[in-house]
Amino acid sequence: MKTVKFISIALVGALLVLSACKKDNGKEPSPTDQVTDACGNTYPVVKIGEQYWMSENLRCNKYANQSEAYNASWLINNTIPTPEGVVYTPYCTDASDKNNWNSDSKTRYGVDLTDAQVEKLGYLYNWAAAVGVANGKEQATAFSGNRQGICPNGWHVPSKAEWQTLYDYIYNEKSLKSNTVGKYLKTTSGWYNGVFDYKPGLDIYGFAVLPAGNASGNIVSNVGYSAYFHTSTPKEGGNSEAYGLSLYYNYDYLNNNHGDTSYGRSVRCVKD
Asked: What is the pTM of this model?
């Protein structure tokens, strides 16, 4: 595991006057209260270790004017196309719209989300839409440096290594002996709790992961049960897969995995 660099004693002393703004876990308040995307939506920001993250899922279908994909030829008025049945074209699906959930999820979903929670579920993007390329199946290649993609200016889609940095910080700060990082990132409610072995989150960092599920085509599944996030890092070997992260209602861990670039996942942006 990486060595965590803690804030100096001098800096801590200088920030004592801000203690009323800190949570019980002693996190610094963020220098930025919120960030605005290309669609005009605003998101709260949280600092974890030395990284600044959005603490809600992205819910925008337009690229900001500094993105590599801004006004790309395959966009329609700079908006991600969403044709039904075309899996390998960039698209986004609104996970907060229950009309998009498949019948299985509607039948089994056992938690009534508040309007605020539903809004935070955001969109599910395939990998191409998230990182801003025309076709994820053909262009699952590594990027040099940050990849802004669908994120606002000054932010980017986190790489596999940046998600690992988040994992390592929590693992080391909490002196964990096993992978239970996920419980510190999940919300304390909003996850399915009608079966044995339900494990709610603690959400001590304000990262506020809700179970937005995943998508295949334009059908959303596993709402209330799991959360899936993209990285900007494709899987080695040119097999049209990309790395991601997942969290589940019945496990405490943050799971590294990979899947086809056509699958819809949530996006959390990290500051440049």
From this structure: 0.86
